[in-house]
Design brief:
Blueprint: E1 3-8, E2 23-24, E3 27-28, H1 29-39, E4 45-49, H2 53-61, H3 81-96, E5 102-106, H4 115-128, E6 132-138, E7 149-151, E8 157-159, E9 176-178, E10 184-187, H5 188-193, E11 202-207, H6 218-232
Parallel strand pairs: 1-4, 1-5, 6-11
Antiparallel strand pairs: 2-3, 5-10, 6-9, 6-10, 7-8
Length: 233
């Protein structure tokens, strides 16, 4: 398949200013995703969609194409990923005549994602014929619905789900949550013809908890920096 690597990185960020290029072990956060994408030999090309010139500059410095700047109306706090990805595909079709078979969507906030994760998701799509492959992480058993409780009007704890609490870990269902997602691979026909990132046949790519850490707060940066240091030892 002809697969486009697409990094989504808008400039605005309320929690951490300039989050996508904040320093992480002395390097911009974005650099980790650029390098992982370029290290994957199965991506035909890697581009970035951004509205921010400083982000575009970092992307270029790390070997990623910046064929266009994202329109302001697609770089708001409430902008969803789908129209941003569709804009990129339409631009490439109209301006370059380029129409990939699938798009590998990468978030800069997943710096522990590596090239092998990108390759693993592609292998699942090739093997299963999936419309979408999304990275997930197993939910800790004590955070699943069977373990959750709420506080009633009298201030007492009660099971969140009706019925008695499930106490034994072995009796609880195994559940998964999207981890960012760190990896989201979607066929172009699913994106453009069905207006969705998640097609009828969506397959999971399971990642471990350490590689699934996502940057959302300053505390996340501290944790991820420690994990990256450990990885380098």
């Amino acid at each position: 398949m002809d697969i486009l690597g697409l990094i989504l990185a808008r400039g605005g960020s309320k929690g951490i200013p300039h989050k996508n290029i904040v320093p992480l072990l002395g390097r911009p956060l974005l650099a980790y995703s650029c390098e992982a994408a370029l290290a994957s030999c199965q991506l035909s090309r890697v581009i970035i969609s951004t509205d921010d010139p400083s982000i575009a500059k970092v992307a270029k410095e790390h070997g990623v194409e910046v064929p266009f700047m994202r329109p302001d109306e697609l770089a708001q706090d409430n902008t969803l990923a789908l129209p941003v990805v569709q804009h990129a595909i339409r631009w490439l079709r109209e301006k370059e005549g380029y129409n990939p078979d699938a798009v590998m969507i990468l978030q800069p906030t997943s710096p522990l994602r590596r090239a092998e994760h990108i390759t693993g998701a592609i292998e699942i799509m090739n093997r299963t014929g999936a419309d979408t492959v999304v990275s997930v992480v197993e939910v800790p058993h004590n955070f699943g619905p069977a373990s959750l409780m709420s506080v009633d009007a009298n201030g007492s704890l009660e099971p969140y789900q009706a019925g008695s609490m499930v106490l034994r870990r072995q009796d609880k269902p195994i559940l998964y949550a999207r981890n960012g997602p760190a990896v989201l691979l979607v066929k172009t026909t699913t994106l453009m013809n069905h207006d969705t990132l998640y097609g009828a046949n969506t397959q999971p790519y399971v990642m471990d908890q350490i590689d699934s850490f996502d940057v959302d707060t300053k505390n996340d940066l501290i944790i991820i920096e420690a994990l990256l240091k450990q990885r380098r030892q």
